Amino acid sequence: MDNVHDGLPAAAEKKSNLLARDWIAGLERGLAVIEVFDEDHPRLTAKQVGDRCGLARTAARRYLLTLEHLGFVASDSKHYWLTPKVMRLGQRYLASARLPRIAQPYLQRISSAIEEIAYLAVLDEGEIVYVARNGPNRVMNSGFVLGARVISHVTAAGLLLMAHRADEDLDAWLAARELAAFTPYTVTDKTVFRSNLTAIRQQGWAVSERQFDMDCRGIAVPLRDMRGEIQGALSVVMPIRQETQEDALGRVLPVLLNTAQALRNVI
Known about the structure:
267 residues, alpha+beta, Arc Repressor Mutant, subunit A, Beta-Lactamase, 2 domains, six-stranded antiparallel beta sheet, 10 helices, 44% helix
């Protein structure tokens, strides 16, 4: 976490025109406390929270007690954990955001045409967030739920959106992490990864096979607005079964491209 004094943290100064006098450091720190909890760290002490977000234990404890009072955190007097109330924050986005609401009937058309699960995904700090979905509720390890976040290098939507990032942003993203392997097929070599992104940018669509799940294939196309700017990715995630990649592309890609073009006229 960036150090915060009387003004903006360095990252905020770079990305925002917000004046230092308008920056509320306490709000940033409170949100940072919420974000330290994850699958690997579901229950934490105040010291552990402070260590993970750059706060002294006493300061972290005050934030945790405030969040507990507001109902976002629960405690047994030693450990703290998030409550279901935190989910309201994400639900507020899904309820108020314009793009998922506009895209929903178009996703329904995709899933009806090809009988697969269709998604709208957006990129958030190197992760894919699925903000709308429609399709059959088949049992799949990679049948992502609404609101799911997945590291971008293992999904078709993630590859598609990463391929259209500015070179300097991609350089910074790659420099900050290793590409984790989820299957024996996951691309973890950064040179190969960048080469794949170049090909995706040139061809205008992405396909991902066995990168996150051994029986999973994804196909994605960019969703552009009327100005041509990419707002997200339309994708289909499906089991590979006995279908070849060529056959899957022939069946799914035209539907995705036609739907993206239709959506472009209304967003």
